[in-house]
Amino acid sequence: MARYVMEFERPLAELEDKLAELSRLDMAALPELGAEIADLEREVEQLRETLYSALSPWEKVQVSRHPDRPKTVDYLEALFTDVVELCGDRAFGDDQAIVTALATIGEHRVMVIGHRKGRTTKENVARNFGSPHPEGFRKAERAMRTAAKFGLPVVTFLDTAGAAPGLEDEERGQAWAIAQCLATLSDLPVPVVVVGIGEGGSGGALAIGFGDRLIMLENAYYSVISPEMCAVILYKDAARAPESASALALTPDDLVRLGIADEIVPEPLGGAHRDPARVIADVGLRVESALASLAAVDPGDLTERRYERLRAIGVFSEESK
Amino acid sequence: MPINDWFRQRESRKYTVSTGTAADGLPDGVWRKCPDCGKTLYQGEVAKALSVCPHCGYHFELIARDRIEALVDEGSFGETDAGVGSVDPLRFAAAKPYSESLEKARATTGLSEAAVTGRAAIGGQAVAVGALDFRFIGASMGSAVGEKITRVFELALAERRGVVLVIASGGARMQEGMLSLMQMAKTAAAAERLARAGLPYVAVLVDPTYGGVTASFTALADVTFAEPGAHVGFAGPRLVEQTIRRSLPKGFQTAESLVDHGMVDEVVARGDLRDRVSTVLGYLMPPVAGGDA
Fold first, then answer.
1. Do A249 and B211 touch (CB under 8 A)?
2. What is the mean pLDDT of each run of 10 residues along chain A (321 residues)?
3. What does the pLDDT read at residue B26?
4. What is the average per-residue pLDDT within B93-111?
5. Are residues A175 and A41 in the same domain?
6. Quick one: pLDDT at residue A2?
7. Does residue B126 fall inside a structural domain?
8. What letter would DSSP give residue B221?
9. Do B177 and A254 touch (CB under 8 A)?
10. How many residue pairs from chains A and B have C-beta atoms closer than 8 A?
């Protein structure tokens, strides 16, 4: 099966392919090629290092969307035991784009809420590529209330391009469904740990995307608008998304600088898909550690601190008038 | 994203000023055309009717101060936080720098930001009010608007007031990136605190309200009114059309269809707003300790 090559990887992929081709040749018959192959190998190694060690914001966005990148379901399967999935919003349906489940990580029994992208095209169609409908957010909100009722901490996984913008989504109150998640989450008397694992697209991400700790993977992004859409508005040209990605301050480093994210999980050179097991295990440790440190906090203090945390976000000027 | 549409349209928009002093206000002596029924109207007459077309009832846009004046008891409004303004925290790079857009908006509106807030009374009941001014970068919500809306809820909580907001907005202000998105959570959290304290929040939706502003504090009101014909939604109509690849039904995302779909309680004409809001507050305001207010 052909591997998925991101746009910015193409020069490297071409060299890698050439190298693979050469390795299939009969070297005994072509002794003069030996030195050239060694040179090429060095070149590939160097290119890999320079290409991946300083990704631009737009390149990070591409990595965050890589089809082989570990997804919410991968974390759920690898890190959690005794999983009981909760289905449906009790009003309209069960949105496959969001998964909610009772689950255990280490010694913590929690409520997991995550955007659910698919691994295959068929799965992705069923899950609307991880873009929730209103009933998805209402399912998430139902899970939040259940968590609050039984004192279960909430762990969320963000990986969505955004909330679904369809006709029926509008008619069923997409904005109302998202807003209710924000209100409920803001005052939830249990710890809330958020992990940005891939895409963090606007309101659809935010609906389950803030709490007491925000952990971001190195190549995950979180943005008020997609770089493509931003470029269309600014320049009437989606091809200028790379510029928009830089302007929007959407990388984990930006988020830490702005006081929104708390910690960054390093990824292997090239992205989490190069060594999913390692990244997933690292996330597991950080989630457990966050849960452990939040477990001791009184529920009243927890919501008060969460409010103060939100309250502090924003940069503005103030003169007396 | 919902901000699409106002960006395209805002250059061609016309604003009416009935009592304000804004620089672009139309003088009373001019004639204007109603975009709905096409009749030519004398501006003085339009202004007297709260900027509603006397022939067909079309609701012209109003600046924020006039929105508030039309809603609260005469002379009861006292502005708060007028000095809160935006900076350019990300040094947002674009064809037109954000700092320039801010300069221009300040010059045009005489406001420091899109939200005008304060204390007032409606039917003698103490409220904290706010209105968004669409002329100011599409009344999009950045840090300053988020802060001012949050303070409205906090003021109401501290002084046991109800909250009444008149809302129009293109959505989140993308020039402030994630700082802007997080204002959705911040304002929603403040609205939730008010709700927990048993104090009422009435939202009045006017044309147009979209994106992150609809999907945060706007959609959390106890009672929601909308002006006739106001367009309200999450995704802008062009994006929805692109998504479904067919044309939109007539009246899509209008106040009237939002009542049909269960998102809005009542379509209220501008002239009736004060009375309707006052009546609702009468039901929802907790009794004042120690007797009559």
1. no
2. 82 89 78 83 90 94 97 98 98 98 98 96 95 98 98 98 97 98 98 98 98 98 96 91 96 97 97 97 98 96 98 95 73
3. 63
4. 92
5. no
6. 63
7. yes
8. -
9. yes
10. 208
ipTM value for the complex: 0.95
Residue B180 to residue A311, Cβ atoms within 8 A: no
Contacts B249 to A, Cβ<8 Å: 167
Does residue A317 lie in a domain region? no
Measured in whole angstroms, the distance separating CA B268 from the mean position of its chain's CA atoms is 15
Residues A99, A135, single domain; the answer is yes
Same domain? A50 vs A153? no
Per CB-CB distance under 8 Å, the chain A contacts of B178 are 222-224, 248-250, 254-255, 258, 260
Best residue in A61, A92, A145, A224 for a mutation probing chain B (most B CBs within 10 Å): A224
The CA-based dihedral angle spanning residues A97, A98, A101, A106, taken in that order and rounded to the nearest 10 degrees: 100
pTM over 0.80: yes
Cβ atoms of A154 and A190 within 8 Å: the answer is yes
Q: Residue B55: inside a domain, yes or no?
A: no
Nearest by CB to A260, from B182, B193, B214: name it.
B182
Q: Which residues does chain B have within 8 Å of residue A180's beta carbon, measured at their own beta carbons?
A: 219-220
Rounded CA separation B293/B276 (Å): 20
Task: Tell me how far apart the alpha carbons of residues A169 and A164 are, in angstroms, rounded to a whole number.
Answer: 7
B174 contacts on A by Cβ (under 8 Å): 224-225, 230, 233, 248
CB contact under 8 A, A316 and B248: no
B83 against B11, higher pLDDT:
B83
Residues A130 and A236 in one domain: yes
Choose the closest CB to A314 out of B179, B235, B239: B179
Whether the predicted pLDDT of B1 surpasses 50: no
The answer to whether B161 and B155 have CB atoms below 8 angstroms apart is yes
Measured in angstroms, the CA of A288 and the nearest CA of chain B are apart by: 25
Pair (A49, A65) in one structural domain: no
Q: pLDDT digit string (tens) for B194-231?
A: 999 999 999 999 999 999 999 999 999 999 999 999 99
Tally of domains within chain A = 2
CATH number of B101's domain: 3.90.226.10
According to DSSP, residue B232 is labeled B
pLDDT score at A38: 87
* Same domain membership, residue A211 and residue A103: yes
Kindly determine whether residue A310 and residue B189, on different chains, have CB atoms separated by under 8 Å.
Answer: yes
B211 belongs to a structural domain: yes
Interface touch A163/B234, C-beta < 8 Å: yes
**Is residue A13 located within the same domain as residue A150?**
no
Instruction: Say if residue B75 is exposed, middle or buried (CB neighbours under 10 Å; 0-12, 13-18, 19+).
Output: exposed
* Host domain of residue A137: 61-311
Contact indicator for B113, B144 with CB cutoff of 8 Å: yes
Q: Is A26 helix (H, G, I), strand (E, B) or coil?
A: coil
Residue of B81, B148, B181, B222 to mutate, interface with A, max A Cβ within 10 Å? B181
- Look at residue B19 in the predicted model and tell me its pLDDT: 43
Residue B46 has pLDDT above 90, yes or no: no
State CA B142 to chain mean position distance. 15
| Interface with chain A: mutation pick from B117, B152, B182, highest number of A CBs within 10 Å | B182
Confidence at residue A265, expressed as pLDDT on a 0 to 100 scale: 98
Assess whether A12 and A152 both reside in one domain: no
Of A182, A230, A319, the CB nearest to B83: A319
Give the Cα separation of A221 and A249 in Å (integer): 9
Q: Which domain holds residue B69?
A: 62-284
User: B285: how many CB neighbours lie within 10 A of its CB?
Assistant: 18
